[in-house]
Amino acid sequence: MTRLIECVPNFSEGRDMDLIRAITAEIEAVDGVELLDVDPGKATNRTVVTFVGEPEPVIEAAVRAGRKAAELIDMSKHSGEHPRFGAMDVCPLVPVAGVTMEEAAAYAHELARRLGEEVGLTIYCYESAAREPRRKNLASVRSGEYEGLREKLADPAWKPDFGPATFNARSGATAVGARDFLVAYNVNLNTTSTRRANAIAFDVREKGRQKRKGNPITGEIERDASGAPLWIPGSLKCVKGIGWYIEEYGVAQISMNLTNIAVTPMHVAFDECCERARDRGVRVTGSEVVGLLPLAAMLDAGRYFLRKQQRSLGVSDAELIKIAVKSMGLDELAPFDPAEKIIEYKLRKGAPTRLVDLSLEGFVQETASESVAPGGGSVSAAVGALGAALGTMVANLSSHKPGWDERWEEFSDEAVKGKALHERLLRLVDEDTEAFNAIMAAFRLPQASEADKAARAAAIQSATRGAIEVPLAVMETAVAALEVLDAMVERGMQSSLSDAGVGALCVRTAVFGAGLNVRINCKDLKDAAARDAYVGRADELEARALAREGEILAKIRAKL
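The structure corresponding to this sequence follows.
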């Protein structure tokens, strides 16, 4: 598996685009790193940069960017709305694929060491890379900000983890960490009052607000027996937040870091801000995502708002994203382009074109060309995807049928099942061609020595198993789609019976077409026991598909 980590350094400059470009050019110059996003903010005077790659080149790119930031940014002249204490203010590493959090923390320590030794930056490690408990929280590490850094460094308890313990007026200090995916999320208000925005932020953030006697704003702070302030927790776990005024937009915002979107997703934070703002006579007008976010966050939000409308959740990802954008006003201040804001879509840009990315005409023309792939296996998967999609369509239509309002969730559940099946079959369209290409690559391996020949033979057999297992997956997935189609014949809109019937015919074709691929590839498999098992499984799936298709068509004919 490719080992990927994301790096999200924040630099204390958001206005000088030439300076920002000089920093990001250092990142782009490193092979194996892809710069995903550059998000400058004028009011905060801060730029959030996102890039991704395998750990070693990501660390190299971060070191180069930190060095350039230290050269170009003078913290003694910096001002902005966001808390900060350094030119490269924070630099977290986020495991994306094939990397554990423990490994990400080790990579963060290596990055911190290099920034300290090679660049001369004062480094504190935080979150999962923290070397002592009180440094886990970024707010604690950055307390006092740049203005209090000289005094902080004079305290032996705040000796840096790496780099010099002396105050550098130009570069300040940097926090290097390893953390889960963090979504930087701002909620826009119909007020210019920072005080009101702060009040709402204190209502929702986990830390809450200090407890006061009498007046909640000006009253005396209540303290415990040791003299420490008492706090009233906010309503949302794993949320940090403050209120501020954004001059370029002329509005106040609640600025939040959602540090664990599995605990508090973006849509929950949005709705909670709406409720708390309403309590204070303020309205939420929209919101914005700073940097990138995972696809799952947008899909979960779309489903959340559809569920509130009692509408089917089994719609396309594009529709779920559209619902999320409109529901949370993510396009109020600037267009929300999924291709630029969603990390999985951003990574897909520039990748080789997949078969499923072609138009229908393009897929047909590619199939008809002189190339041997895509062939019957990919076409079987595509036909199966169409059959499953027809079942999903009938379920979605049924969930919105007038008079069936109380049954929306029943049909939504079937639509969600259907969507998962047709999406799996679409992936198998390309996987089948990839499996064929793997066999061709194995045959091209060298045969110069006996060892080469043995390795080549093993590779051919391994690739052959893959070329059998992919069409078997097509068969299994297609057979599962017959369950959704049968349910829609029984309970769905009767005016769509013919659609369900066509779906069953498509699925049967997918099963038998993929079965042919299983059998032709089994001819080249040396392991007789495995070959018999594969063919036996294909026989079983074909028998099930034939029987269920017959039952579905008989029901349709009887109803018609």
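Residues 450-491 form the longest helix (42 residues).
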